[in-house]
Design goal:
about 375 residues; Diaminopimelate Epimerase, Chain A, domain 1; alpha+beta; single chain; 6 helices
Amino acid sequence: MSTRPDRLQESQRQQAVPCMLMRGGTSRGPFFKATDLPADIAARDAVLLAAMGSPDARQIDGLGGAHPLTSKVGIVSAGTTPGVDLEFLFAQVSVAQAKVDTTPNCGNMLAAAVPFALETGMLAATGDRSTFRVLALNTGMQCDITVQTPNGGVRYDGDARIDGVPGTAAPVFINFLDTAGSVCSGLLPTGQARDLIDLDDGGSLEVTCIDNGMPMVLMRAGDLDRTGYETVAELNGDTDLKRRLEAIRLKAAALMGLGDVTEKPYPKMCLIAPPRAGGAIATRCFIPHVCHDAIGVLAAVTVATACVMQDSVAAGTAHVAPGLQPQVSVEHPSGEFSVGLELDPDDTQRVLSAALLRTARLIMRGDVQLPLRS
């Protein structure tokens, strides 16, 4: 029987929609079957806003956690493309505004897509380890996701640790197959690895505008009179820096062909600095107006890609060992994120694939109750 909200019976002036609250990487949010949501986009977004409790700064009347990292939604459906097992649509739900954005990807939430599909019977385990091809509908990107499935069920406990999440869990391996130009026209949407942005004070700033899974603007922290090692609280309280970053973001977005991004969650802004904990590079990312406690999955892939590009702003700052399969450790405020790259032997500036480790966990299953709107 269908459980679409438009066919559910009223219950105490509320409607129930099946979902599972899941953590994917360092993000969290409810996951829905696409068939349990309205097909009409406007109606679907209204359901998601109500489920999360938006718009409200505290999201007190919904599942949202009053932060961009905990105001995310995963929507999962069966694969319809040959060779694709599962389709995943990520939705970034604004906390304080009535807006739902399905333009960018989210590699963290993606880590929970296969566990959700296995929990709901959309997929069946193929052995002690199960690998499935997943299409990220937001950008058309495909990846292979491997999860632990002993005895036919999803395993959540294990020894894998990712910075930004307490404790350990079973590993989720994601191998991104083609991430260049996820939202922009290509890997380097401006046509070059380094651009000059005019600053409001009359100076200029060297940046790298890049999209290898996530549109980003990279800049050296020192060029903005910051160390790149500041705490998240310090950066979130740095109103002058945030004002300057937003001005840079709007100008860079125009160069990247993204148009007016005033109300968009991309491009992300990233301050880089030399590593100081044994990694390849230190980062402080803004998403885009709040400093990230860690770094997003696809943001890490994009930063790692810039680290192996000779002409990017990361050149001379990043410490990456030579070779066609470098492991790039991206330092962030709560630890590090390792990205394994495979480079094209004929063009070592071209990344063929990126592999990384995440974890995921089912937190709760049931129905989210939506207040009926008159």
